[in-house]
Amino acid sequence: MDGADGARLVVFAPVDNIARVDAVVRRIGDAIALGLLDDGEQLPSETELAGYLGISTVTLREALMALRQQGLIETRRGRGGGSFVRAPARPFDLDERLRPLSAEELRDLGDHYAAIAGSAARLAARRSLPGDVDRLRRSLAEMTRPDAAPRMCRLDGRLHLEIAAASQSVRLTREEIRLQADIGPLIWAVHDEPGARRAVHAQHARIVDAVGRGDEDRARDVAESHVANAIERLIDRRLTL
């Protein structure tokens, strides 16, 4: 699974049943603002994209219209046409995304995500193959490269998907994808704040080390703490708004 494929697994995972147009607009808008979808990149066809997201083409067209009005995509007609990403004029606004969420909602989301991430890391420590661990270590090393900053959100998401895949559990991997799509943009944003990056990398390194050594309890505990720390930062920020 390369970075682009991992990003698409998250961006194009099925959306919740409630307020689907808004959910699609938020999902794709977040992905563009965070760099998970690149400027000028062509989105899948309407039929493919609606299928990935689990929505009707009518719902998708409403969402694409809203994204066009926001200046986040442009649609070209004729041969070679389709919907193309336009880089936003302003970066991802964490405060704007946090305002509709209460501290209780953030904590509940965090509890669920920590449980999934912890279980995936524990099973990865038990079941991962040497090739799985090699991929984790390559991703970890790539995150330390001097040119990694613009791609950090993409790399962070890829590492977590690789850990879930190493658990050899299809259901856990699917849930990791869904949760990254729902709360991942918030966690990635808070992880990318000044002063947080070094601590986040150290947490990633401890998870990978525990998976590589087959230390199930350590892998679970560090993965749960990794999520919990991000949620606490999000709650603290939300309470200041």
The CATH topology of the largest domain is what?
A: Four Helix Bundle (Hemerythrin (Met), subunit A)
CATH superfamily of the largest domain: GntR ligand-binding domain-like
Radius of gyration equals 18 Å
Number of strands: 2
CATH architecture of the largest domain: Up-down Bundle
Mean pLDDT: 91
Domain HTH gntR-type: 18-88
GO molecular function, one term: DNA-binding transcription factor activity
Keywords: DNA-binding, Transcription, Transcription regulation
Protein name: GntR family transcriptional regulator
Distinctive features:
241 residues, mainly alpha, Arc Repressor Mutant, subunit A, Four Helix Bundle (Hemerythrin (Met), subunit A), two-stranded antiparallel ribbon, 2 strands, 69% helix, transcription regulation
How would you describe this structure to a colleague?
This protein has 241 residues and is mainly alpha-helical. The chain folds into two domains: 12-85, Orthogonal Bundle (Arc Repressor Mutant, subunit A), CATH 1.10.10.10; 94-240, Four Helix Bundle (Hemerythrin (Met), subunit A), CATH 1.20.120. Helices cover 69% and strands 3% of the residues. It is built from eleven helices and two strands; from the N terminus they run ααααββααααααα. It has helices spanning 3-11, 20-33, 46-53, 57-69, 94-98, 103-127, 130-142, 152-166, 170-191, 197-213, 216-240; strands spanning 73-76, 82-85. It has a two-stranded antiparallel ribbon. α2 (20-33) packs across α4 (57-69), α6 packs antiparallel against α11 (216-240) and α7 (130-142) runs antiparallel to α8. The protein is globular, with a radius of gyration of 18 Å. The N and C termini lie far apart (38 Å).
